[in-house]
Structure prediction request, 368 residues.
Amino acid sequence: MILGILDRYIGRSILTTSLLVLLTLVGLAGIFSFISELDDVGKGSYTVTKAMQYVFLTLPGKAYLLFAPSVLLGSLLGLGALATNSELTVMRAAGVANSRIIRAVLITGFGLMVLIALLGETVMPRTEQIAEELRLTALEKRLSVKGRNGLWIKSGATYVNISTVMPDFTLLDIDIAEFEGFKLVRSIHAARAIQLENDWQLEDIKVSKIRADSVETLFIEQKNWKELAKHDKKIGDVPNLVSADVLKSLSTSPDSLSAQNLYDQAKYLKANQLDSRAIELAFWVKIASPFATIVMLMLSLPFVFSSQRAGGAGQKIFIGIMLGIVYVLVNKLLTQLALANGLSPALSAFLPLIFFFIVAAIGIQRSS
Prediction:
């Protein structure tokens, strides 16, 4: 029972300070983001209210990115307060070993790890998508909405639905509906569309011409969109199937996608013999990110333990904060360098964690 109380007491100290630090950092990031968005206010129908909505919807993504550094700072402040008030000294004098304190910290870390994993897999991808839709719809005059049923685009009397936009802007499962007034005259489905210089090449096409008394269906292996759009039509200039600028605006950064989406994209790229390493790296970084919470907590422990016996606790906390910043920078650098030098994406993603885990373990051993 005493050990259970100890776990809860230490955990509450870490959780309280970590969440306060996270709220502070996310709040500051949100303010700077809102200031940046003010440059686009007034364009199209993008108002201050919509800018505020956009920033609010991006806050879960900012929380996800800032979570690990916030846990490091929160642990330093929470455990540092216990050390300053001699509470850790009393615990050790009562026979509580450092290993027992470390265990209590790691239990809290596992809870935080589950929390950030859920945030990254459920809340963040959805809010980032809604935020980009809101911003683009307000800034663009054309109708372009991305929802659960894919990307919808309206161009004149043509409506286009795209199930998936790949990182190289290859389109999957495209449905095109052409109207004359309120009458549907032709329906086109293509398995994929590959971007050309001024056109799109559609593959595995099914064309259905809808008449008053019949439906004529035609299967085509591949054909360019503009050639297909001009078929049986006396029109000159054919609008592009979808603007590349719109796709770039709507495409979500791999960092904002869920692990399942990244896995599906990597699987598609491999199946089509395309370079999938960047997406695989993003997938493994997504898997590795929750474990950074544990590493951050471990990095804070040497500074807390050493501050019990020596002066300069503020200096040690400052060093710990700088170490958190170094972790973020080194993490980005090592993952890209490892991938560029031919290491597997999985090893590239976990290499920074392994390095800082060893540093933390050595620091704990020496401080204990």
In short: The first strand starts at residue 144 and ends at 147. Confidence is low (pLDDT under 50) at residues 141-145.
